[in-house]
Design goal:
7-stranded mixed beta barrel; 3 domains; alpha+beta
């Protein structure tokens, strides 16, 4: 009997083992194997998520002010630092471009501290020899009396906050002095935007380039913002070996200047007038993206998916649209791509133009103009092709609605009030008070008007979708005893029939009209040749709903007032010249 029970136990054990082994082929285990297999499979790099490093901002206080002490000294000719501080501050960056020379620099001793002086635990304490170089930075802002600066820490002198290139912006044309910082501080909440660290800085400068002065001079308040370079990529968790370009004048068109470095006709200076090279020098991927975008036989949905990241692009464009940063069609952004990825990402740069709908209203009047809403981006190939796609435009709509809710009035009011408390004491003290655009009494209310920016730009976005899109016009062409005027076709999102009205005048207010014709269908018109003199013309398009649009041009009068849609030109000895002549 015992022997029989043992046999049963052994037989049962064998059966259990067999069942366990055969269980590997059961439906449940097959599913488990399938899931395991899916985990093991490696995703394509184009599917990887590229976002900002949100941990980088965790310890930042957006309303703090640090004090920088900068002692400037005359250096040596070999380094190009043998200049005086007065020389450095005497010229705009246009001067250097026009004369094809490097910007004047001086040597500097940079020290960080508080209002009591440099601090022992901070960068540069007790340093007595130059640890940096200093030069003026910016474009139009470099023409102002108060300059912005770039301080470059020497390679063997360490880092300040993991940065070697320190940008100090004066924001001279921003009456608030914090628009740029507000945008960047908001961006850090949304990793898809890929933002930048910023810091309010109170700057003191001691000039020892002309005889050794022993006192620091108060230069007022600045905003420090990260320099976009390989170090920036590293700090933000991005590929420091990747491609990085800063837009100088780039509308995603095919430019003759954009060539491979191996091309015999490659010209670095010409290239960087379109895109400044900040990363890898192999431009193959960039040129492929541009070629595909300008190949209208390829569906834009396919091109977009291949070359751009949906979350990054639509977040960037929606944020800039709602904050009113209108100057982003051809500049004020960087294009980044990891070395081995086909995707391109937008990195915002320079938000000075944002948060200023009141200024735009004061300049051109309340209401819709071609630089409002989506029509502002119509000149860029990427944005125009995206907007013509209902599928892609719906994705922009979705992001617009998302950020409209995120950037609430309550949230913005709290932030701008905090910025005002920081900035106002500096702005209305020497030396900044000499350059303030508002009185101290006006300043609080003017600053608070910024909270209406989102809703104003949201309404302009919605309004722009009702209108035909803007277009470029050609310079009039002489054709025998006739003048031929031609322009690009407009576009209507609702596919309504479009008609053009042409007006020709001797004055830009069109009080003395020479020729006017309505109901034009084809984008051209011919008029009799005109006598020598100055003339103005405008072309207005109207859709079936009665919504209008002007050409993407303007005439600036002697008072620097822009007259949108108006084109000026001269005729001399039967030859046509542009209106800026």
């Amino acid at each position: 009997m015992k022997k029989h029970k043992s046999y049963i136990r052994i037989t049962t054990a064998i059966m259990i083992i067999a069942l366990l082994l055969s269980g590997c082929n059961s439906p449940a285990d097959q599913t488990a194997l399938k899931k395991y297999s899916e985990i093991e499979s490696k995703p394509d790099i184009s599917q990887s998520e590229v976002t900002d490093n949100s941990q980088l901002y965790v310890n930042d206080d957006p309303y703090s002010v640090i004090t920088m002490y900068l002692t400037v000294k005359k250096g040596n000719e070999s380094d190009g630092t043998n200049h005086t501080w007065k020389e450095v501050n005497s010229y705009s960056t246009y001067y250097y471009d026009e004369n094809n020379i490097d910007r004047y620099k001086v040597e500097g001793i940079l020290q960080i501290g508080d209002e009591s002086g440099p601090l022992p635990e901070e960068f540069g304490y007790n340093v007595t020899v130059p640890n940096a170089t200093v030069q003026v930075r910016g474009k139009t802002t470099s023409r102002a009396e108060q300059k912005s600066f770039q301080i470059k820490i020497k390679k063997d002198k360490g880092f300040w906050r993991d940065q070697r290139s320190i940008i100090l912006n004066k924001h001279i044309y921003d009456f608030t002095r914090f628009r740029n910082k507000l945008s960047y501080d908001l961006m850090c909440e949304y990793p898809a935007l890929i933002g930048s660290r910023t810091q309010f800085v109170h700057l003191y400068v001691r000039d020892m380039t002309e005889g050794g002065k022993d006192r620091y001079v108060d230069y007022g308040l600045y905003t420090q913002v990260e320099q976009m370079n390989s170090r920036y990529l590293l700090n933000h968790g991005l590929d420091r070996n990747g491609h990085l370009y800063k837009a100088s004048m780039f509308e995603f068109m095919k430019y003759d200047a954009l060539k491979l470095t191996t091309d015999p006709k490659y010209d670095l200076n010409a290239f960087e007038k379109v895109l400044e090279i900040k990363g890898d020098n192999d431009h193959t991927k960039l040129l492929k993206m541009i070629d595909d975008l300008n190949d209208y036989s390829l569906p834009i949905e396919e091109v977009f998916k291949r070359h751009f990241d949906e979350e990054n692009y639509f977040s960037w464009l929606a944020f800039q649209t709602l904050t009113g940063n209108t100057d982003i069609s051809s500049q004020n952004f960087l294009l980044y791509s990891p070395l081995n990825s086909p995707k391109w990402y937008f990195i915002p740069w320079d938000n000075d133009g944002a948060w200023n709908h009141i200024g735009r209203i004061e300049q051109s009047g309340r209401g819709y103009n071609y630089f409002e809403g989506v029509s502002n981006y119509w000149g860029a190939v990427l944005h125009q092709r995206m907007l013509k796609s209902e599928i892609l435009r719906a994705k922009l709509d979705e992001k617009i609605e998302y950020f409209r809710k995120e950037l609430s009035k309550e949230k913005l009011l709290k932030m701008v009030d905090n910025y005002r408390k920081v900035v106002q004491p500096y702005l209305y003290s020497m030396p900044d008070i000499e350059h303030a655009e508002k009185t101290e009494k006006e300043y609080p209310a003017a600053v608070r008007s910024m909270v209406d920016e989102i809703e104003y730009n949201y309404n302009m976005y919605k309004e722009s979708l009702k209108h035909p899109m803007p277009y470029y016009v050609d310079l009039p062409a002489v054709n025998g005893d006739k003048l031929r005027f031609a322009w690009d076709n407009s576009f209507d999102f609702n596919n309504e029939v479009l008609e053009y009205t042409f007006e020709l005048s001797k004055d830009y207010r069109f009080k003395t009209t020479i020729n006017k014709e309505s109901g034009i269908i084809l984008p051209e018109i011919t008029v009799p040749m005109l006598p020598d003199g100055q003339y103005f013309y405008k072309i207005t398009v109207k859709n079936e709903s009665g919504e209008t649009q002007t050409a993407m041009d303007y005439y600036m009068d002697i008072n620097d007032i822009k007259h949108y849609g108006v084109v000026g030109f001269y005729i001399e000895d039967g030859i046509v010249f542009a209106g800026t002549r």
